[in-house]
User: What shape does this take?
Amino acid sequence: MIKFRPEDCLVLLVDDVSQNLQLALEILNSAGYATIFASSFQQAIERVKTANPDLILLDLMMPEIGGIEVCKRLKSDNLYAHIPIIFVTDSNKKEDIINAFNSGAVDYINKPFHSWELLARVKIHLEMKKTQEELKNINSQLEKLVRTDSLTGVNNRREILSLGEKEFQRCRRYHRYFSLLVIDIAFTFETWKPISEKNAII
Assistant: This one.
């Protein structure tokens, strides 16, 4: 497993109160994280699209549009749905907490927060994200090994039969002709002989 390094992670902070942004930025920067910030919904969406952060700290209450709606919009987009979102708010209402998780958030931090709590939650979810990415890569490699020949990299017999069955069913469904072409490739190797017994390797 790859060692966790805060400096490899980009965190986006979204809050319309400058004091809150400044405090969170100081805490994260002191721990080595790379950070960017946004003070509005529109800025937040633009930052996500241009910077593709590893994690988002999102204020629940924002003037133009609520954090819940921002979270829903990001989670509905396949390009950004993988980014973990942690809500930061001074609300203790049960419905706010439920709505936060239902919108796709991974965690919830109450204001005022301790620096150790913020750093601990950020690290946990960044580590989980990286672990999921590693597992996804491993699964992708395993899937490729199952479908392809390890020597040539082309589809193996199992995958060819599966693709053939799908194509056959598609042709039946749309009443089209189904053709199958089988090509055998033969290799000829010339036997190499040493020029003299002196040069021969025994």
